Amino acid sequence: MVYILKFLVVYGFYMINYNQFKRGDDLIEVQGKNYEIIENVKNAFQESVLNDRYSDILSKYDFIVGDWGYEQLRLKGFYDDQNPKAAFDTKISALDDYLYEYCNFGCAYFVLRKIDR
User: Fold this and answer.
1) Residue 80 burial by CB count (10 A; 0-12/13-18/19+): exposed, middle or buried?
2) Element of type H or E holding 78
């Protein structure tokens, strides 16, 4: 059983439902939009850098993921799993696949959820 779970986690089959996270106290505002920090791995979140890198195109997404590579912050938007028009790889349930395929192994990253829709 343990080997099966390790396989599922390593190969991205373990999906986390980010809609079930309880609301935290970490609320921020970025260019007039309110977000909640729901995950902050290795203290990746830096508000000043986020404000510099943020683009208006990200405001259409329900989630923003920021990951660090080569001392630069990269931002990517994801939609809620309940959005019927979103492609699978743009839904938040595909976050683990994104981190595994496109990010440096063990990189610092954070996940923001948009509060006002």
Assistant:
1) middle
2) strand 72-78
In the chain, the domains with their CATH numbers are 2-114 (3.50.4.20)
Nearest to 76 by CA among 110, 41, 45: 110
- Other Cβ atoms less than 10 A from the Cβ of 108: the count is 18
Residue 98 confidence (pLDDT) above 60: yes
Q: CA nearest 25: which of 17, 34, 33, 36?
A: 36
- pTM given for the model: 0.77
Per-residue pLDDT at 110 exceeds 80: yes
Task: Report d(CA 11, CA 6) in Å as an integer.
Answer: 8
Q: What pLDDT, on the 0 to 100 scale, is given for residue 5?
A: 40
Q: Which two tokens stand for residue 107?
A: 């990189």
Tokens of 48: 């000043």
At residue 20, the pLDDT reads: 42
Residue 42 structure tokens? 């290795």
